[in-house]
Amino acid sequence: MSPVPALRHPLRSERIWGLLLASPALLIIGIFSMLPTLASFLIGFTDWDLLGAPRWVGLDNYSSLLADPVFPKVVANTLLFVVLYLVLDLVVALALALALNQKLRGLGFFRTAYFLPVVTSMVAVSIVWEWIFDPRGGALNEVLRWFGAEPIHWLSDPGTALPALVVMSVWKSLGTNVVLFLAGLQALPGEVLESAEVDGATGWKRFWHITLPLLGPTVLLVGILACIRAFQTFDSVYIMTHGGPRRSTTVIVYWLFQNAFTYFKLGKASALAYMLFGVLAGLTWVQWTLRKRWVHQEQDA
Amino acid sequence: MPRPVRLFVLAVLMGSLLTQLAACAPSGRSGLRFSTWGSMDEIATLKPILEDFTRKEGIPVELIHIPDEYAHKLRLMVVGGTVPDVMFMSNEALPGFARKGVLADLAPRLAADGRLHQRDFFPQVLDAMRWKGKLLGLPRDLSNLVVFYNKDLFDAAGVPYPRPGWTVEDLARIAPRLTIPGKQWAIGFQPNPLIWTPWVWSFGGDVISADMSRCTLGEPEARKGLQFYLDLRHRHHVAPSDKDTGNARMTQLFATGKLAMFVYGRWAVPGYRRKIKFHWDVTTFPAGPAGSVVDTDASGWVMSARTSQPDAAWKLIRHLASRESIETFTRSGLIVPSRPDVAQSPAFLQGTPEGNRVFLDVIASGRPTRVPPAYDEITWELIDGLGPMWTGEESLDQALPPVIRRIDALLAEVR
Amino acid sequence: MNRIVGLVVLWVGAFLCAAPFLLLIATSLMSYEQAMTYPPAFWPSPATLDNFSKALGEGALWRWFANSVMVAVVTVVGQILTGAMAGYAFARMSFRGRDLLFFIVLMTMMVPVQVNLVPLFALVARLGWVDTYQALIVPDLAGAFGIFLFRQWFLGLPKELEDAARLDGCSPWRFFWTVALPTARPAVATLAIFQFLASWNTFMWPLVATHADHLRTLPVGLAAFRASMRETTDWPLLMAATTVAIVPAIVVFLFLQKQFMKGLMDGAVKG
Q1: C-alpha distance from C191 to closest chain B C-alpha (Å)
Q2: With 50 as the cut, is the pLDDT of residue A104 above it?
């Protein structure tokens, strides 16, 4: 065998092999992911009930969405959900991560415990929490009763249903953020913290002036991921409240689902989907940019 | 074995498992596919009837039980081409499917059938299954509303029982005597359109105009009905507020003896027979200026227009609508039967409540719920938009106009 | 002092995370009558397995369980195969449009699933796949995350390994299977657990794509089971069914948690 064909042969075949190896994945992703994404954009400009033929209506869906009195309510619900979730999630996760970050034994045990909710299906979790929130005999009201509180109708009161869902969602995803925060904390340069200790900065002061600023990128990253998750809330609403009472828990994805598969207004649902897409794409872009910058910083340091 | 080969073998194994599972799934070709909703108790009643059918006719039936979002899922099955051969359907869902040509006309089959006749069913109930002159289903049951009342609470208050034919004035008169503030209320209060619509109707109003072009809740009669209902709660305090009940279901409040009366349907009866210890009965909805008008809705079995086995599907429908089957459904207590022969038999008339007949007597004055396109969204709007009115946060004048505007817009959307 | 506060925080956190699971299991072991007493009992006495035998005796639960296992296993295997192949191609081979294609694949990660829901259903309906296993499996046989993960891994493969093989006349196909893939064990494990949990827990798509009882996966079946007792909820029975649904995910997680944590970090931090 002469050396020349031996070198040329693989190179030429590499072109074919490369495409060939990538093709199963590309086909699946192309047909079942990219194609629908493009189609969704187009459906957003049509009036379609799934059974008849779609009818081109231009920007009607977008304008009727903006004119729909339910729309501002849904946006407000979604934003309230995201903000409450974000604040509660970050504070609690950071507190737990700080507590974990002190070289104690049994770290694995705690991490696992915090992680159990993460790996459990949202449907199962929602059913369990429905029982916890049950006004009569539910665990939460029973605990409150020890403190003399009147029973609260968590899921059937428009004032408490959304916060109740937030609490459950925070419980569900806490583990992820604890792990991410812990990784961030462990990556902090030890010298800075130690020198701060020598300078006599302790406890709260040290956290506020040194740890937190250093942890900034992690907080942002975790926050954005949490934000994206919160915007996509659906399963719990579907199981626990069906968007009620009085639409107080109708968040954007649930309304999208209702428009698509309850009212069969596919055009409106797709328009809504693209609005959501815009927001999430923006958030993802920020996340990727930050991540790049952060990784570079790390490498520089 | 080298690793890739092992992986490959694993994949092949999985593939064959897949095809095997798919194969042992009861496939449409071997028998009939039949969909229904309902609680587990209902399914337990239904299963022996289906088994009996398979034994007699030699046709296997695959039961597709969809307890939630039934009509919407059926619609997705229509789109996917997997619509069941026979479907259980309410008259509210019927027009949506009929408009799309999904349902077969059963009139010719019923006319040609030797065993089953039109006269076997209450005419009003059969009518509820009609759409534009076609008979699209054979009814299993009719659903309407009556007033459930707690005899013991009436006795304790020294108030005579509400007799059929009683009026809203009677109600207003006796209600304060049946109320003990904070503890017991004369009548339940449900912000559910199904339950409050009879107030509108009985005062001579309507929710949606006959030509389904606009919402008529703003007209004087309808407003009077709504106001009367609202006053029970907010002016006379004879119906519990949300704070009083903590949003517990009225069915529960009645079962625990906290309500003297409440408006509800037949489907509460099986649970009450098992659970309730006190004496209770049912009577008609109180008559308003326009009489005592409640809905006469129905549920029954329809056939897919696309079924490949229409004859077998008809046999199943005929079996389900037979006297024996309807009797079995009726004995569970859950339904008001669609057939007079069963309705007049002990299967329906025996057992609590004594006033079982009331469910039949109100058929004559009843009317089916009007189902425009966008019915689901309109119902949502009624629940959502009127919510603050029921709680007292908004007055009738504040709450109604935006709801009417929105429903008018939804009605106008259909071109 | 700080240490003690920290420990207290950790234990309270752990208890709150675990409490719903304890309640779930305790309730599943109660009789209906016991669960309905008021004020409620939190400890089952006497404990009974009746609910489990009743839940499993319905038959449907087994079926849903088998469906979930099957869909999860097939999609895991599929994602590993397609992901490794494509990841390898994107990392180690040069072909026309490679970078553009990879960029587009990455972009699909940005699209929330809800955007694709409607057209995906229309597509699956057109294919005649509504109420079939294909509908649950095929769209999930490849994913951007898997490709990304494997590409990262194969980028780190020493070039000398490849050159040596090339000189030996080893075809790229054989090299991939016999040399490259076996080194990617950690990536395989990470993807396996991620995809298993994603598939096991996914709800919205199977809710839309399947309607017949016998095709439901556990989450959809569980939701239907819950809905079938809207009027009066038999909490102990429901909790028993829920327990059955969550145990496999937890077991898989406990076995592969190291890979999971690592994958989580890779997904969030690097790239």
Answers
A1: 15
A2: yes
Least CB–CB distance from B81: residue in C70, C130, C208: C130
Residue type for position A164 = A
In the prediction, which pLDDT does B20 show?
Answer: 47
Segment B258-286 shows an average pLDDT of 92
Contact (CB, 8 A) for A260 and A266: yes
Amino acid at residue number C204: M
Q: Which of residues 38-67 of C touch A (CB under 8 A)?
A: 38-40, 42
For residue B247, give the chain A residue with the closest CA: A156
Question: Which residue, among C211, C214, C217, would best test binding to B if mutated, counting the most B CBs under 10 Å from its CB?
Answer: C211
Give the model confidence (pLDDT) of C23-51 as tens digits.
999 999 988 888 777 777 778 878 888 88
SS (HEC) of A223-259? HHHHHHHHHCCCHHHHHHCCCCCCCCCCCHHHHHHHH
- Nearest-Cα distance to chain C for A73, in Å, is 20
B247: phi then psi, degrees, rounded to nearest 5:
65, 15
Note the pTM of the prediction, 2 decimals. 0.88
pLDDT of residue B157: 95
Tell me the two tokens of residue B106.
Answer: 């059963």
Contact list in A for residue B383 (CB cut-off 8 A) is 244, 246
Q: Positive or negative CA dihedral for B100, B38, B255, B152?
A: positive
Q: What is the pLDDT of residue B246?
A: 63
- pLDDT tens digit string along A234-248? 999 999 999 878 889
Which residue in the set B69, B100, B384 is minimally distant from A246, CB to CB? Answer: B384
Contact between C74 and B39 using a beta-carbon 8 Å cutoff: no
Closest approach of chain B CAs to the CA of A181, in angstroms?
37
String of DSSP letters for B46-82: HHHHHHHHHHHH---EEEEE--SSHHHHHHHHHHHT-
Query: Is B219 strand, coil or helix?
Result: coil
Indicate the pairing of strand B259-264 with strand B336-337: unpaired
pLDDT computed for residue A220 by the predictor: 86
